[in-house]
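Assemble and predict.
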Amino acid sequence: MNIRIKFRKYGSMKFIGHLDIMRYFQKAMRRAEIDICYSEGYSPHQIMSFAAPLGVGITSDGEYLDIEVHSVSNSKDSIEQLNQVMAEGIEVTEFVKLPEKAQNAMSIVAAADYTVSFRKGYELDFPWDDDFDSFMKQNSIKILKKTKKSEKEVDIKPLIYSYQINDDKINFQLAAGSANNLKPELIMEAFGNYLNYEFAAFTFCIHRREIYANIGEDEKLSLVPLGDLGDNIE
Amino acid sequence: MNKLALSDEILLTIEKPARYIGNEINMARKDSEEIDVRFAMCFPDVYEIGMSYLGIQILYDMFNQWEGVYCERVYSPWVDLDAIMREQNIPLFALESQDPIKKFDFLGITIQYEMCYTNILQILDLSQIPIMANERTEEDPIVIGGGPCTYNPEPLADFFDLFYIGEGETSYKDLIETYRKMKKSGKSRKEFLIQCAQIPGIYVPSLYDVTYHSDGTIKSFEPNIENIPKRVMKQVVKDVSKTYYPSKPVVPFIKVTQDRVVLEIMRGCIRGCRFCQAGMIYRPTRERNVELLKKYAYEMLKNTGYHEISLSSLSSSDYSDLDELLLYLIEEFKGKGVNISLPSLRIDSFSLDVMSKVQDVRKSSLTFAPEAGTQRLRNVINKGLTEEIILEGAGQAFEGGWTKVKLYFMLGLPTETEEDMRGIAELSEKIAERYYQIPKEKRNGKCQIVASSSFFVPKPFTPFQWFSMCTKEEFLNRAKIVNNAMKEQLNKKSIKYNWHEADLTVLEGVLARGDRKLGKTILEAYKNGCLYDSWTEFFHNQYWMDAFEKTGLDINFYTVRQRDFGELLPWDFIDIGVTKEFLIREYKKAEEEIITPNCKTQCSGCGANIFEGGICNEH
């Protein structure tokens, strides 16, 4: 049986990198005595996969991992079981059963919501909302994408699905996943370039709010949160 | 939410910020309102090393079980953070509360190896606690040292207020109670230290004076006030089944060196190898009850979520109920995705059978520690392993499908001759030949034999404590002889030989048998920039050489000089139970190449029976 787990990552846990979070959850499954499935062989590992890695320093309300289990009680108890063994800064919020033929989380990630805010002490001393609107109204937003061998100019505008400015914060919906992935930091860098202003390092606090799959056909985008693809276990 | 001592900007700049944020699973949390004694427990190396050390986990658990006491952890900041802390004047902090160490009542530092001494000074320095004990005021924490290196604490005497000699489970309660009383009645730091000197196992270096002969050896070592003991008695837990053991060890977020549940099955060792300090200072051998260990194993795996468990002791094959314990672990946990990581076991049919159940035979390797190349020299060092046993074990393993063998040797052992050195190559060759006796169609390609040699450092409280140690040049010369002999062997392509760093060994030798005069040299080396000396990439031999030069101390005085039995040694004021008479007896038997039976076979009257525990009680 395949299970999708949603969790929050906040506070000092933002300093724990993706690989360590994976190892953390492997241990948490054993502490919570989740009846998880193991692979065969001399060093069996848990059947577990994460939707999208989160960079060090970024907090989130919408992280996902999929696991395979032999048995479960119900969603409510499982969430409680897990939260009893969590470190401060990780909280499990959903535990749902996936349909038989569901694809794993990683392969279906299509978009993510982010909130970008100014770190305390790094706020801009000039109004920037209107500038940001006109920055977003450009026909294209070009950035230099550096790879090991070359630099390539790419237009990130098509990857920004929506944005709103709210209370000195910007909410984004951005393309995510293996095909097209846009990090909010890149937009802010491009905005700096547009303003001819260099943001100091650590200016922005980034928070991921949700990760989506695309259930639309063909070109039409229809996004649903990854957790909505499963059902609560009563 | 927890506050953090370091800003986001710093944490996002340095390597592995998880080293400094605490908040790990099973971390102790206490309400500051209910605490009257704060103890910072330090391992003076990087987090990943320090977190792997069982001793701190045991004491951390013990302290935090006590009402009013809060024990927190601190490790050496890595070089990146070290630079930032100095530049921004950030005081070193404990992981749990993130509070500065200088606000604590105690700073306890475990001293596991000589090459961490400059890291100890870093800890004090970054904590903004005066490095010299005699410069500390009523405001500063009491700095206390423990661990194996405190069996000769003298090189560090200038930097510590107290040393705790022996196992931490016995006298700390006394120490904390004394502290509470003294604090309540408004007594001074000095008065507290004098009071501590009465507690069994506590050594207060400032209360003892040392004088020297003109040749630099010690003339006298005496208390400088009345009514404190002349000798300090090592502390021992009589019954290791009736003491503290952490059922909920702290689980790090990042991968640490010992990333698994560690089950300490036994303390001490019955073998009595003459070079081995642990084998002498942890006497008597005491085993933990097997039923208790099964319970601990279950609880610790459940409370940590680790997927691996390993056994810890000096010689696990000597644990009486090893078969029962291993079979239980395999039966109970193997099906639950838990790996059983085996300690170095004596290779026989039982251990090979167990190993084949828990390891991939083709990938895993077997380890033998003959320590010396010939039977003659193995008799000198009292290493019971014979060539027949090694070849028999290796043979069985090769038949069972293993192809990799690791061999550990020491070079520079007392009485070592060229024949002994060549013996290392010859023994490696014999093992390789044993492999190729297996018909070609039945073996898995070539075998791989890796022989490593470390250089011998005479340690305090061993029968070899009086012996001369080799110079760096002599060590390297001997390694070269072995290396050349390796090249002459028929199966040289299946044998790999490597040897340790010689510069580091020489320094280890100085500090291991050093005296108080070395304090200024260590301080000088630290000022020259020495830090993380045990990390090859940070080790600067020249800084140390400059420090010796400046402080006018002669390395050879501490290393190559042969001591005589009459010399007052810097550590003679410590009583480890094992008597000097026994060590001298063993020294002489070594010269005569006579072995001493292990404690299970026969009691050799070492003196450890005064502790009335463990193996001594069984005789």
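Chain B has three domains: 8-233, 260-359+577-619, 361-500.
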